[in-house]
Amino acid sequence: MELHKIETNGETLTLIINGDLDADGSRSAQPQIDDVITNRSHNDVKVDFRNVQFLDPSGVGALVYLYKRLVEKQRNMRIEHVSGQPLEIISLLRIDKAIPVNSHD
């Protein structure tokens, strides 16, 4: 899994995830996730799931960790372009009730 950071404007940072958000992917992305949390230059963080085919409990944990830390700092997060198995997991666990989700089919 790869995590790319794209600054779309001065307020928004887009995190593009390429690959599965599983135990290995979550572990490798942790330093970048921590960097997003500590770098306060963006109030809004979008997590782009268009290239994610698989989400497991470790990936869910990484998303919730990122969301909770951003909210603590009065920042916003949303998940974009989620579909397939990741959308099923997000809906089943009702993550979409806490974190804004923009899905596509």
Automatic annotation (TrEMBL):
The record's SUPFAM superfamilies line, in alphabetical order, gives: SpoIIaa-like (SSF52091)
Cross-referenced Pfam families, in alphabetical order? STAS
Example of a GO MF term: anti-sigma factor antagonist activity
Gene3D superfamilies annotated for this entry? STAS domain (3.30.750.24)
Q: Which CDD domains match?
A: STAS_anti-anti-sigma_factors (cd07043)
The STAS domain covers 2-94
According to UniProt, the name of this protein is Anti-anti-sigma factor
